[in-house]
Amino acid sequence: MVIDVVLAGDNAIVVGMAAAGLPAEQRRKVILLGIAAATVLRIAFAAVAVSLLAIIGLTLAGGVLLLWVAWKLYRELRPQTGIHDGTVESRASPPKSFGQAALQIAVADLSMSLDNVLAVAGTARDNYLVLAAGLALSVALMGFASNLVARLLARYRWIAWIGLAIVTVVALRMIYEGGTEVLHHTVER
Question: What's the CA gap between 171 and 56, in Å, rounded?
Fold first, then answer.
């Protein structure tokens, strides 16, 4: 359980960042939807965790997906500039829709849940009670932490840049590890 709780921290940051761009009344709904999607994905991943270990390049693909999410988050954070009547204008990004936030959460959790599930499955082995308890605890904590992160980001926008850096580092780490795995596998052949 401790392994999965520690690994769920990066997921909470992404969910919180995706939800922070929404009005307060929609924030909780999209976090709840994201947590429900995370639960379904983690159960599905846990059911086939052993088979997933055999798929070479899955971490690389997840890292690329997560880097795409980081790019989308970056585009939302940077101020929009344009030239109007010969002067440069700076304006905020247009507000994010509920569907956009839900999609970001689902894609990010899809790419980032794999390491959580594999760590818990590897630790739990055949003890499905431990596996279920670890997954349930991590999803509950992720929901609580995501809501807290989203509220902080709504109030202190600069924290989002730190979150974006964390998400980008995680994506690049996954790409590096997955690329190394693919390269190692092809060299062996």
Answer: 17
Residues recorded for the chain: 189
In the chain, the amino acid numbered 153 is: L
Helices vs strands, H then E, count in the chain? 7, 2
| Residue tagged 């980032």 (tokens) | 112
pLDDT tens digit string along 47-94? 676 566 567 887 788 788 878 878 888 887 787 665 555 555 555 556
Cβ contact 42:34 at 8 Å? no
Per the listing, tokens 């989002």 go with 160
Distance CA 13, CA 122 (A): 24
Q: Give residue-wise pLDDT tens across range 99-146.
A: 888 887 777 776 666 666 666 666 666 677 777 777 777 777 777 777
